[in-house]
Amino acid sequence: MVTTQATAPDYRAIKDRQRQTWASGDYSAVGSRIVLMAEQLCDAADLRAGSRVVDVATGSGNAALAAARCGCEVTGIDYVPSLLEQGRARAAVEGLEVTLLEGDAEALPLADGSADAVISVVGVMFAPDQERAAAELVRVCRPGGTIALASWTPDGFIGGLLKTVGAHVPPPAGLRPPVLWGTEARLRELLGDDVASLDARERTYVFRYPSADAFVDFFRTNYGPTLKAFAALDEAGRERFHEDLVSLVHGHDRLDGGPIAVPATYLETVAIRR
């Protein structure tokens, strides 16, 4: 009898590839569409003015800026320098004070217990080593502090989009799907006994575009995962991928032709550090 042992993913190589993916296109254009998710998460976390807040995988700063509007002392962490620059520009325009640092969600450049609240809006969920990323959220949060997350669900629209991307351009072998963060069961596994309580509820954000084709064109141009997937395919593959994405949009659209309104489900979670 021959047994085989699964090879652990090369997380360093995966992160290098991810960094290039998120630096491609213009994620800030996508992020600007989902600002409401960050505002709602900060409200759900009941952030207090003066609190020390860390936004993990901040991107162009949606959640960091939302926390700053609450009067918090905010540090945002991301591994894509260009997105951090966009976040700093946004903060300057809005007259908000935030500190945005280059760093890895799996090795946050912050001291143990240095945050009253640690938050992430569809950011930390993409860290390849999920256990290590979750451990970092816990490490940086002080005892009694708050961990608040917004994560796309597996069976929602963006979960379907990421699954469609993976069907055309398979992800690295052995990598856990990021949308597992959008399930309460997985979050309880990841945070475990390090949290005294965990409350999760599903919410929806509605994407609105003039048409399904307009949505696909926008994401093909601006959203790193779809942009890179299109680039990796030949012309026939790109046509099939485009058709599958259009079909996905129509399958979730709640309108009757023409302009689209597509509800995208995400899990909003607030946990208290033990």
Short overview:
The protein is an alpha/beta fold and 274 residues long. The chain has helices spanning 11-23, 27-31, 35-44, 62-69, 81-94, 130-140, 157-168, 184-191, 212-222, 224-232, 235-252; strands at residues 52-56, 73-78, 98-102, 115-121, 141-152, 195-209, 260-273. The longest helix has 18 residues, at 235-252.
Protein architecture, described:
43% of the residues lie in helices and 23% in strands. The chain has 274 residues and is α/β, with parallel strands linked by helices. A 7-stranded mixed sheet has the order 3-2-1-4-5-7-6, sandwiched between helices. Strand 4 (115-121), helix 6 (130-140) and strand 5 (141-152) form a beta-alpha-beta unit. The longest helix has 18 residues, at 235-252. The N and C termini lie far apart (46 Å). The mean pLDDT is 96.
List the helices and strands and how they pair.
Blueprint (H helix, E strand, L loop, with lengths): L10 H13 L3 H5 L3 H10 L7 E5 L5 H8 L3 E6 L2 H14 L3 E5 L12 E7 L8 H11 E12 L4 H12 L15 H8 L3 E15 L2 H11 L1 H9 L2 H18 L7 E14 L1
Parallel strand pairs: 1-2, 1-4, 2-3, 4-5
Antiparallel strand pairs: 5-7, 6-7
